[in-house]
Specification:
The chain has 210 residues and is of the alpha+beta class. It has a domain at 76-208: YVTN repeat-like/Quinoprotein amine dehydrogenase (Methylamine Dehydrogenase, Chain H). The chain is built from three helices and ten strands. It has a four-stranded antiparallel β-sheet with strand order 1-2-3-4, with no helix packed on it. The protein has a four-stranded antiparallel β-sheet with strand order 5-6-7-8, with no helix packed on it. Strands 9-10 form a two-stranded antiparallel sheet. Strand 6 (149-154) and strand 7 (163-168) form a beta hairpin. It is globular and about 55 Å long. Residues 26-31 and 37-53 have low confidence and may be disordered.
């Protein structure tokens, strides 16, 4: 019985010795690898504040260039600062005035744009900006309904969706000292496109994309 116990103890001692011999290199390898691992650092991302463009920081390109002191060469940024004029339409009765669209960009960083309605007297060359410029707001696709009423599309709605607006011109547009606030006609939950008005201005058609 005593011999059997000694035999068991002897085998146990050999087994433990072998386990220790195998375990020591593993511990050394793990320790070296942990020392070679780079220390992980936490990077904090800082987001720049969002700039809101509105009528309070409105500046035309002519005002911007008048504020420059020293002359410089014309480059691609100056090309972007040029106003885009489009879609002129004559007065439906006398043809002595036109309304057109004017797209202009935020000065001086060009990080926003707006499209507004303008009126031009062809006899006196008097120009009046009809709708208020707000960065991100674009008027488009306008129609003369009668001598002093304009229908047009714009995203001036509180929902930021394109809707139909009506602009009523005063009797003497050339004497207009401030912007004219348009009236919102539609309030659909979708953007309105492709506005059409018949010659009698009694019917209109448009499309909405779902």
């Amino acid at each position: 019985m005593g011999f059997e116990c000694k035999k068991v103890l002897l085998f146990s001692a050999f087994f433990l010795s072998g386990a220790v011999i195998v375990l020591i290199p593993c511990i050394v390898v793990i320790a070296r690898r942990s020392n070679n691992c780079p220390v992980q650092t936490t990077t904090t991302m800082t987001t720049p504040p969002t700039t809101i463009w509105n009528a309070s920081d409105y500046q035309s390109n002519s005002e911007y260039y008048q504020s420059l002191i020293s002359p410089r060469n014309f480059d691609q940024s100056d090309n972007l600062r040029l106003d885009r004029l489009s879609s002129p339409q004559f007065h439906p009765t006398n043809g002595k005035s036109i309304i057109y669209l004017r797209r202009q960009y935020h000065m001086p960083d060009l990080r926003g744009s707006t499209t507004t309605l303008h009126w031009l007297d062809l006899e006196t060359n008097t120009t009046v900006q009809l709708t208020r410029p707000i960065w991100g707001i674009h008027d488009q696709q306008f129609f003369w309904v009668d001598n002093n009423t304009i229908l047009f599309l714009s995203n001036r709605a509180s929902t930021d969706l394109r809707q139909i607006f009506q602009l009523t011109l005063p009797a003497n547009v050339s004497q207009t000292a401030d912007f004219i606030d348009p009236i919102q006609i539609t309030n659909y939950p979708l953007n309105i496109d492709n506005l059409l008005v018949n010659r009698q201005a009694s019917r209109l058609a448009f499309s909405c994309q779902v």
